[in-house]
UniProtKB/TrEMBL annotation:
Residues 17-116 form the SnoaL-like domain. Transmembrane segments: none annotated. This is Nuclear transport factor 2 family protein. It comes from Halostreptopolyspora alba. InterPro entries: NTF2-like_dom_sf, SnoaL-like.
């Protein structure tokens, strides 16, 4: 279910689906290409474990997660957005299996790309 108060909801959901694909893409070159489309150059990511600045910093963090959990994938949950800000649920675990973790992220979108990501676990 997507809740929106403006007409950007579908575009935001598309950006968030691409964001999740960054986390799931195992080929570093392809992941960076998707990241360049998803993130502003100076995008900022923060969650309870870390913070990362810029596309390169975010890519390094994602690569670390993939090394720790090579067989797990992320799935996009419910999205709610308005005025270029969105929050959405996500799950993380083995494909087709029960999630090992869930959370909610809040993002700020500027000119169609994510500029800030605030991640929450649980």
């Amino acid at each position: 279910m997507t809740g929106n108060t403006d007409d950007t909801g579908d575009r935001v959901t598309d950006v968030l689906a691409a964001y999740i694909s960054v986390w799931n893409e195992r080929n570093p070159r392809t992941r960076r290409t998707i990241g360049a489309e998803v993130f502003t150059p100076d995008a900022y990511y923060v969650d309870p474990n870390t913070s990362a600045q810029g596309r390169s910093g975010i890519d390094t963090y994602v690569a670390g997660w993939q090394e720790q959990f090579p067989d797990f994938v992320f799935a996009l949950g419910a999205v709610n957005s308005h005025h270029d800000v969105a929050h959405f649920g996500w799950s993380f675990g083995p494909p087709g299996g029960p999630p090992a973790a869930t959370g909610v992220d809040v993002v700020v979108i500027e000119q169609g790309r994510i500029s800030k990501i605030y991640g929450f676990f649980g």
